[in-house]
Amino acid sequence: MAIERGLSLMAGSLILLSLNLAHFVSHYLLWLTAFVGESLFQSAFTSWCLGMNILPCMGLEAARRGKAE
Known about the structure:
By secondary structure, this protein is mostly helical. The protein contains three helices and no strands. The protein has one domain.
């Protein structure tokens, strides 16, 4: 899986997890949802995201550009 798809998977999973935990455990866990949203927002302007640094450590690689061979 490419880093870009892994980042979408990670962000979506964290948002859904934090919403479920906020509903069943504590509403303070909505801060995790806010953190993920803020991180995605700032990455649109800076092209830097914490997840993009974490995912290569988990074995994901950048997507290849160009035609498939």
